[in-house]
Amino acid sequence: MLSVRDLAVTFGRGAKSFRAVDGVSFDVAPGQTVGLVGESGCGKSVTSLAIMGLLPARGNTVTGSVTFAGQELLSMSTAQLRDRRGKDLAMIFQDPLSSLNPVVPIGVQVAEVLQRHKGMKRGPAQEQAAVMLEKVGIPDPTRRLKEYPHQLSGGMRQRALIAMALACEPRLLIADEPTTALDVTIQAQILALLKELVQDSGTALIMITHDLGVVAGLCDEVNVLYAGRIVERAQRHDLFAAPRHPYTGGLLASIPRLTEERGRRLTPVPGSVADNIPWDSGCAFAPRCANEIAVCRERTPELVADREDLGADRLLRCHNPLESHPLDDDARTDTSSTDTSSTEEDPA
After folding, report:
1. Which of 17, 112, 117, 184 has the fewest CB atoms lying closer than 10 Å?
2. Could you tell me which CATH number the domain at 26-44+171-258+267-348 has?
3. Backbone phi and psi for residue 141, each to the nearest 5 degrees, phi listed first
4. How far apart, in whole angstroms, are the C-alpha atoms of residue 119 and residue 123?
5. pLDDT of 88-125, one tens digit each?
6. Long-range residue pairs from 327-330, CB within 8 A, at least 24 positions apart, any chain
């Protein structure tokens, strides 16, 4: 359904230019959930904005190819993209309070999508808006239609955004860290809601997050980004069972698990995302990597099939990857229990 090839986004020009996304390629099939994972600043959100055509018209350069159902999105006019957005492509933004209009009732904002893309009259659109709010789990939807965003809780605002995104039954949904500002209980409810809606409608989903715990219970395929490039791609279970890139291993090691002994210290990835070197000079992750060898700062690693061949279509960008020790089925299931929904079963 969606094919991204060599997508690159550069901000600024000349010596002061900065490449936020550098040659990202991936595919999304109908009904599939693909994850884009990485720390803040790795290029996840910029990738999604480039796909949706929402980057500012000035101050940036977007190259590569993004095809949706065989049509090139990057060459479409602004008017053509407006017709696509909301109808075929939809996006859930990270902060619902800043994404919703604070002076317009929720019902009007949801109904506006239906009026714009389905040609519905105001009355029927309001009725369908109430149906959508009920579908995403907002209680007393008829009353909520008249309320403003500040009158809703954080979880309800996020649900309202999801209702707007799904109102026209889009074929592709991009969720940009939709649970970041929510507590773990509401987070689990939102993730369960997204999973259910995608399964029911067959919508393809791109899940953007920095939390591998979110990925554990939702994504089919995972792309790990670092400094604008994909450093590892694998199926969810393969990735959690045997991470190969040191960055992926570091992200997994920093997640607390209910099965581990109490009081055990986490092992975070050292340094910050700013501690890197240009990809043209070597591996950008080398300054933070415990597996660094001489070649890491001399030659840029390519994204190629993993030599260990641990899973179908598994790709890796690393000169000295972690050793592979695939877990058995029981251990693999336990590793995937980092899903945030586990917080509902065990308050500890």
Report:
1. 17
2. 3.40.50.300
3. -65, -30
4. 12
5. 999 998 888 888 999 999 999 999 999 999 999 999 99
6. 327/241, 327/242
